[in-house]
Specification:
The structure holds 2 protein chains of 2 kinds. By secondary structure, chain A is of the alpha/beta class. Chain A has a domain at about 1-65 and about 200-255: Rossmann fold. Chain A contains 9 helices and 10 strands. Chain A has helices spanning about 40-45, 70-75, 90-95, 110-125, 140-150, 170-185, 195-200, 230-235, 235-245, and strands at about 1-10, 15-25, 30, 55-60, 60-65, 75-80, 155-160, 190-195, 205-210, 215-220. In chain A, strands 6-7-8-3-9-10 form a 6-stranded mixed beta sheet, sandwiched between helices. In chain A, strands 2-1-4-5 form a 4-stranded antiparallel beta sheet, covered by helices on one side. In chain A, a hairpin with a 2-residue loop joins strand 4 and strand 5 (about 60-65). In chain A, helix 4 crosses helix 5 (about 140-150) and helix 8 packs across helix 9. Chain A is globular and about 60 Å long. By secondary structure, chain B is mainly alpha-helical. Chain B has one domain: ABC transporter involved in vitamin B12 uptake, BtuC, CATH 1.10.3470.10. In chain B, helix 2 packs antiparallel against helix 10 (about 225-245), helix 3 (about 85-100) packs parallel to helix 5 and helix 11 packs across helix 12. In chain B, about 45% of the residues are buried. Chains A and B meet through helix 2 and strand 6 of A and helix 8 and helix 9 of B.
Chain lengths: ~250, ~325
């Protein structure tokens, strides 16, 4: 379980805050909010890359700032929005890097490491990509192997920063379905920041909404048949107003 | 399966190194021309040829490994000790010592200490800038600016100095492998081994930092410590070589790229060993050309490495444009 307690997030001045939120394993969470509202900053804070300005984050009942880097890497994995590929690095080698926190001094893979890597590859069905160099893959394929690497890292928590941004509709669907499968069948916590509300709705009911008015993160539940507008109402108020009233135009959309 | 392929290639590189080593030891002539019965020949071998060959091997390895490390750390195939201005640091401090007469340590290791200190200081500059620079290209430009900035200072010093001292510095600047005495070889070997062990003991962080610093950090690597170790060992490799042999250009940039294209891997252990071998081969080859043409024309080492290295780098840039794969 990840718990945030009266958190203030930002670099110098707080840009976001939340009272108390807990995430549990086995669930898929979507983090939504306008561009620049601080989604990435929030994820970076959860990863421990930047310290919270105030408040407390606990991961598996341990304060985040007291966990050793190597221990932390066994708890949380991160998937960035875009992986550009690395020259001469094959997909298999890339996925195998997920085992780094567990390997010995020289970084050699044990038999168990290889088993876990193979299981991850089987789960995401990327076997056909293994010998290809990462620079030669498509955006969708690169996103798949990034997620496979996170699986190989074998952590109870996976954070993903807009993993669907550069994908086509089909790959967006595939990715959300895969992540929902990962959280359910592997009992992991997946937290995804995304703008693809209409796709996420099909697989996810837990939304972390960053309201643009008071810069506060709240946890909202939406049923699978709630409309886009229900979600817009919470996180994208101006768009909601525009789409529902179309009279007083707050953003000059027209 | 693939490991086997790499081993074969490394063995080829090693065989190449051995054969060039003997050719170079023999004064770049095909007929074995040593007769150890005579003392003259013995002295020629021990005092002149052996140190020159060993220097070529150690300097070639050092500069190439330094280039590889910079390229890995900065995720940029065009990084290298000379482009990032680390060599300029050595040059500046050697200029201080040889021409301005600034004594850093009162021992006969002065020129060497000056070289290492300069490289270390400029490495720290680059390290400092690298934290605030978003684009790696900017860092290369900063390196070049550091280079031209120090060049100006060196020119001012050159202008004030007497002809004799100027000549000492200029000869150093041409780059050469023949100014190392056999007694100094153990010291170079010692610092080389030290820096190499430092890197080998951080091979796992090095192999992880290939993914970029943020990803490495998320995989539990202590990035700051790794960056520090890489910079320090690069400074030792570059500083020692530059102090003894002058600022050797293009080797650190060209050799690691050549090795990467040949081996097609990011495995740093393999790239380290291969860069050391190919770097030695490259420098031995350049020095063999110098030896062969010795009777016709005296060519400085730096001219040869640049003559071969510069077109190679242009080719590399064109290749990068076409495949976008480097």
């Amino acid at each position: 379980m990840i718990t945030c307690n009266s958190l203030k997030v930002g670099y110098i001045d707080p840009i976001l805050q939340c009272e108390q939120i807990s995430f549990t394993t086995g669930e898929l969470y979507c983090l939504i909010g306008k561009n620049g509202v601080g989604k990435s900053t929030f994820l970076k804070t959860l990863m421990g890359d930047i310290a919270p300005l105030s408040g407390k984050i606990t991961i598996a009942n341990r304060p985040l700032n007291l966990i050793e880097p190597n221990e932390k890497a066994k708890l949380i994995a991160f998937v960035p929005s875009k992986f550009d590929g690395i020259p001469f690095l094959t997909s298999y080698e890339f996925i195998a890097k997920g085992r780094i926190p567990y390997t010995n001094f020289f970084g050699n893979l044990s038999l168990k490491d290889k088993e876990i890597i193979n299981a991850a590859i089987e789960f995401t069905k990327v076997g056909y990509l293994l010998d290809k160099e990462t620079t030669l893959l498509s955006d969708g394929e690169r996103q798949l192997i990034s997620i496979t690497r996170a699986l190989a890292q074998d952590t109870p928590y996976i954070l993903l920063d807009e993993p669907t941004s550069f994908l086509d509709p089909e790959n967006k669907l595939k990715l959300f379905s895969l992540l929902s499968k990962i959280s359910k069948s592997k009992n992991k916590l997946c937290l995804i920041s995304t703008h693809d509300i209409e796709f996420s709705k099909l697989f996810c009911t837990n939304y972390l909404v960053i309201s643009q008015k008071n810069k506060t993160i709240t946890l909202e539940k939406f049923s699978n048949n709630s409309s886009n507008l229900d979600i817009y109402k919470k996180g994208f108020e101006e768009a909601y107003l525009f789409l529902t009233q179309r009279t007083d135009n707050p953003l000059d959309f027209g | 399966m693939t490991m086997q392929k790499y081993k074969l290639k490394i063995m080829i590189a090693f065989a190449l190194l051995l054969s060039l080593m003997f050719f170079h030891l023999n004064g770049a002539e095909f007929n074995w021309n040593f007769n150890f019965e005579t003392t003259d020949s013995s002295i020629l071998f021990k005092e002149i040829r052996l140190p020159r060959t060993l220097t070529a091997i150690l300097a070639g390895s050092s500069i190439s490994i330094a280039g590889l490390l910079m390229q890995t750390l900065f995720k940029n195939p065009l990084a290298g000790p000379s482009i990032l201005g680390i060599t300029s640091g050595s040059s500046l401090f050697v200029a201080f010592y040889t021409m301005a007469g600034i004594q850093l340590f009162s021992s006969n290791w002065d020129i060497i200490s000056a070289g290492i200190l300069g490289a270390l200081l400029f490495s720290i500059f680059i390290l400092f800038f690298s934290k605030y620079v978003r684009q790696q290209t900017t860092l290369l430009i900063i390196g070049m600016m550091l280079g031209s900035f120090t060049n100006s200072i060196i020119q001012i010093i050159e202008n004030q100095t007497v002809a004799e001292k100027l000549q000492t510095y200029n000869f150093w600047g041409f780059g050469s492998l023949q100014h190392v005495y056999i007694e100094q070889i153990p010291l170079i070997l010692l610092t080389f081994t030290l820096a190499f062990l430092m890197i080998i003991s951080h091979i796992k962080p090095l192999n992880t930092i290939v993914l970029g610093e943020t990803s490495a950090q998320h995989l539990g690597i202590q990035v700051n410590k790794t960056r520090f170790v890489i910079i320090i060992s690069t400074a030792i490799f570059t500083g020692v070589t530059t102090a003894f042999c002058g600022p050797i250009s293009f080797v650190g940039l060209a050799v690691p790229n050549l090795v990467k294209i040949w081996f097609r891997t990011t495995n740093q252990t393999i790239l380290l060993i291969a860069s050391a071998f190919i770097g030695s081969v490259f420098l031995l080859f350049c020095d063999c050309i110098i030896l062969c043409l010795e009777d016709i024309v005296q060519i400085p080492l730096n001219s040869i490495t640049s003559l071969i290295g510069a077109p190679f780098v242009v080719w590399l840039l064109l290749k990068k444009r076409i495949h976008d794969n480097l």
